[in-house]
């Protein structure tokens, strides 16, 4: 039995899985990088802009990389399954890989995890339970995470909390993003990444560090209404004092899981953190959608950070940069509805607020109307 030669498993020699027979793959990794300089870049004044499309992973987010490694370890070690916390995407990935592995996934999610992500978990057989306070306040976030990690170990399950602090082996899956970027965009001098618990930022840093090649500056972008990265950078690894106020699903984290690794990634690469309001994230999501790239708000957050840096004079418009799009557009239907409302206004002459339904007889007239009277 040999390891798959494609996707994430091309890098198996850098991953903790030893038994190729334990691998379960849904096609994770080797996501495309698209040059968006002429479209999105031109619209905002960034002349060398690339998008790393992590939304193209199985289950629509980069978390598939983590779940793939986790369930290979579950199988290799004969564990009973995985138990974790999740804002939704990690859970969706865990549930899918559990199903593929013939194993099980138990997820404790945020109380307001968006409906589509919860459905993704349950539809493939994951067990989900919503917990109040998690993500929203630092004490609940940390207490519940510590409790679940300990209980998982006791029950003979893998602790699938997506941070190096809790699941250092599974999180090596994130490092493969850096291995791919080193091949795909070796000229990039900056990589912008969204930050929730800080695992993505930490993992990409560790991945580049492994390669010992050129290390781009890493920039962590968080909604201003989360604040836990800023707090950690300012010496408060325990998180923020109050509640998070951002509505960006996936980035509602009052305390970082990787409160050491994330600030270290910024320091070691000469990078910095950027705080952006939810409105700027929504605008970045709409901008990507304008050019056919439909991602969830968290997936547009890195772009919002680059735009903010450009406006603040912290980024040269000619610098070659990568922004990482982490999650797919179908995951947050409220955000989709916002985009749709704006578009319907523009597309339909009669102020439709939903896509209109017409009879077959009305088709020719509608068509003529929509095509401006041309046949
Ligand atoms: C789409 C998306 N982007 C970014 C993140 C943040 O990743 P991390 O928690 O590793 O910082 C998450 C986390 O759930 C996510 O779902």
Main attributes of the structure:
alpha/beta, Rossmann fold, binds pyridoxal-5'-phosphate, 3 domains, 41% helix
Notes on the structure:
- The protein has 13 helices and ten strands.
- By secondary structure, it is an alpha/beta fold.
- The protein folds into three domains: 7-60 and 173-334, Rossmann fold, CATH 3.40.50; 63-159, Rossmann fold (3-Layer(aba) Sandwich), CATH 3.40.50; 335-370, no CATH class.
- The strands form two sheets. It has a six-stranded mixed β-sheet, with helices on both faces. Strands 5-4-3-6 form a four-stranded parallel β-sheet, sandwiched between helices.
- β4, α4 and β5 form a beta-alpha-beta unit.
- α3 runs parallel beside α4.
- The protein is globular and about 70 Å long.
- The mean pLDDT is 96.
- Pyridoxal-5'-phosphate binds next to α3, α7 and α11.
- Pyridoxal-5'-phosphate is lined by residues 61, 87, 89-90, 162, 194-200, 250-251, 296, 298-299, 326-327.
CATH architecture of the largest domain: 3-Layer(aba) Sandwich
Number-wise, the strands total 10
Percent helix range: 40-55%
Determine Rg (CA atoms, Å): 21 Å
- Small molecules in complex: pyridoxal-5'-phosphate
- CATH topology grouping of the largest domain: Rossmann fold
- Ends distance: 60 Å
Q: What does the overall shape look like?
A: globular
Strand portion = 5-15%
What low-confidence regions span 5 or more consecutive residues with pLDDT below 50? none
